[in-house]
Every structure is written in C-alpha cells, then in structure tokens.
Amino acid sequence: MENIEISIEELTDIPEKARILIDVRSGVSFEYGTILGAVQMPDLMQRSASGELPREERYILFCMHGRESCLMAETLRERGYNARSLEGGYAGWLAKCYFTADRHEEIEDGIRKNRRWHSKLFSRFAKAVRTYELIQEGDRIAVCISGGKDSMLMAKLFQELQRHRRICFETVFLVMDPGYNELNRMLIEQNARMLGVSVEIFETGIFDAVDTVEKSPCYLCARMRRGHLYSKAKELGCNKIALGHHYDDVIETTLMGMLWGGQIQGMMPKLHSTNFEGMELIRPMFFIREDDIKAWRDEYGLHFIQCACHFTDTCSSCRIDGTSVSKRMETKLLIKELHKTNPTVEQNIMSSISNVSLNQVIAYKKDGRVHSFLDEY
C-alpha cells in the first residue's frame, strides 16, 4: 500500500479531476484561506463510517500541519477508502507554493479603478475618516499590522489615502512580533514585500508570557499587545495608532457585551489612551464589511495568517466538527443565523449603538459614575 502521506510535488502531478482535495480544518480556518480547489466535507467521517462516501474517488486530506489529517486518512483507509494526507498540511503548502512576487501596482490599480473595490473598500475607509474625524493635519500614525487580511488591507488603503494628499499626514507601518512561528513571520514579511508595504518589525515575548496563564489568556495577550504597540508608536514619534477592526468586529463586540458581559458597550471609532498621554487609537475600517475584505483577498489569491498564538496554531484547532470555537465565533455564527430570517440584522445592531434613548434606559455609566433613571424620575 502506498505511503499514507503524499508530498506537495506528488499532489501537483495528479490532475484535479482525478482526486478530491479536502480541507479538514474548521470552517473558520477554511474561510481565512485554503489551497486552491480544496473543499470542505464536514460529514466526511460519518459518511465513510456508514459507507455512503463514494469508494471510487481518491481523497487527499490536509489540516494545518498534517497531523490531524493523517489520523483521519488512516481511519478512512481502514474503512477501505483510497485516502492520503498532504505532507506538512496547509502550512507546508504555504511554505513551498505561495510565491509572493511584487504585485503592489496590480493591487493598487484594483483599489483605484475596479468599481467594486473602490466602492466597497476605499470609499468606506474614506467615509469613516471623514465622519469621525480620524485624521488631522500633521498626524503621524502607526498603522498596526498583525499579518491578517484586515490590517494588510488597511495599510494599502492608508497608502491610497495619502496619494490623494487632501490631508498631510505621515504613516509608519508597524508589525509587532509577539512570538510568531517561522512560517507566520515569513508570511507577514513576504506579503508586505508583495503589497509594497515597508514595515518596521519589533519583537516581544508576549506569547511566552501568557502561555502558562490559565484564566483569560486571550484577554491578557490583547492587553499586552496593545500596550506594546502604544509604547513603540510613541517611541517612533507617532500620536495615533490605527487598528484594522471592521464593521463586523463592531457589531460582534456589541452583541458579545450584551450576551456574555452583561453590558451595552460599543467598539468606538476612536478613543484617547488612558495610559499613554497624547496618544489616540483610530479604527478607519469601521464601515468596511468582512465579506468584502474576504472577496478582495480571494480575487487576488492572497493568503494571510489567521490567529498565530500557541493556543490555536496547532492541529488541535483543526477540528472539522467546529467544536473549538470562541465566544466571538459563537456570536458571528449567531448573527449569520439571524440574518437568514432578518437580512437587516447587522445594520440594526450597528444602528442600535448610535440610537440609544437614555429615557428608556434603567441605568448607564459615564466616566465611571452610575446614573439611574430614578435620579430624574
């Protein structure tokens, strides 16, 4: 019997019609990026156990690093199927096959001349800047790049905004490495070169610091990362940091606060730092929809890192049944389900945080002080 693992070179020699390439990672990971031509089959193992899966097909499975898919392929073979696991998984494919030649002119032309991208991306970016007065003359802005699709697109939109020269401001494209593995660090650097974004990278040991924390490691990690970004930005003479949170982040955060935090609290388009005097945080992607960012990424065949921390950058996050999900993902899925019967649910959530009637609120907080409706009843 042939080896259970198949190399990337062997895979490319097999015609697409002669095999089915299955991404066995979670649907969330699949949406962040996958190998061209790959599909998902959430009921793969159930169908194989019942014998419903066609036996004449040739199945090639992959997960993030090839460990989970190897176990699944082995089970399929025990059930009589022609199945193999891609050696190195999606990470191995990225390292060998994701060639990142200079494409910044092509991508910039798309943002400028393609009506869809200009309207859905740049126009909404510029609208947020105007509506919330996010940029002033003489600003020096640290554009914070995590390596994901949102922040990389934000960098390109900042470059385009500077080209218009309506407001004179400076940018520093800042990448903090909290302890990325070699593949993710390489992917960030290659994408930056390909997109024509000159990044300044500085290193911290945040991942190692939170690796042993049992309670709320993600919260602590986020707080530490924010602090390091503010500190480095101030050191570089910046007065603002820009983060790539988009429209869907805003509505998900709002709903998460209600469902799991017991509070109504939105994600602000800008806010002053309480720990770094003179520093401000801005979110110029405030009006951009995540589906449009994904569509832009996919049209240009781009691949970005997802979450690269020690808690998710392993095959333990490859669960095809989707059981390993965060509260944010639960909220995202809930909104998606509600959208089926109420197509305006996203807009309604966004509108709700700009349409608060204080006369109909039992209590609210302002500057740390609680105000009750009984105060003026």
Structure description:
By secondary structure, this protein is an alpha/beta fold. The chain folds into three domains: 5-97, Oxidized Rhodanese, domain 1 (3-Layer(aba) Sandwich), CATH 3.40.250.10; 104-299, Rossmann fold; 328-375, no CATH class. It contains 15 helices and twelve strands. The protein has helices at residues 8-13, 27-32, 44-50, 67-78, 89-97, 104-113, 115-131, 149-164, 182-195, 206-210, 217-235, 247-260, 290-299, 327-341, 345-352, and strands at 5-6, 20-23, 58-62, 82-86, 140-145, 170-177, 199-203, 240-242, 270-272, 280-282, 363-366, 369-372. Helix 8 (149-164) links the parallel strand 5 (140-145) and strand 6. It is globular, with a radius of gyration of 23 Å. Residues 319-324 have low confidence and may be disordered.
Q: Can you give keywords for this protein?
A:
12 strands; single chain; Oxidized Rhodanese, domain 1; alpha/beta; 377 residues; six-stranded mixed β-sheet; four-stranded parallel β-sheet; Rossmann fold
Quick take:
By secondary structure, the protein is α/β, with parallel strands linked by helices. 45% of the residues lie in helices and 14% in strands. A hairpin with a 2-residue loop joins strand 11 and strand 12.
Strand line-up in the sheet with most strands: 7-6-5-8-10-9
The SSE string, one letter per element, is EHEHHEHEHHHEHEHEHHEHEEHHHEE
How confident overall, as mean pLDDT? 90
Count up the domains: 3
Helix content: 40-55%
Indicate the low-confidence ranges by residue numbers: 319-324
Question: What structural class results from the helix and strand content?
Answer: alpha/beta
> If you compute it from the alpha carbons, what radius of gyration comes out, rounded to the nearest whole angstrom?
23 Å
Q: Roughly how many Å apart are the termini?
A: 81 Å
Give the CATH superfamily of the largest domain. Answer: HUPs
CATH class of the largest domain: Alpha Beta
Beta-strand level of the residues, as a percent range? 5-15%
Q: Per the principal axes of the C-alpha atoms, what is the gross shape?
A: globular
Number of helical segments with 4 or more residues: 15
CATH topology name of the largest domain, in short, is Rossmann fold
Name of the CATH architecture of the largest domain: 3-Layer(aba) Sandwich
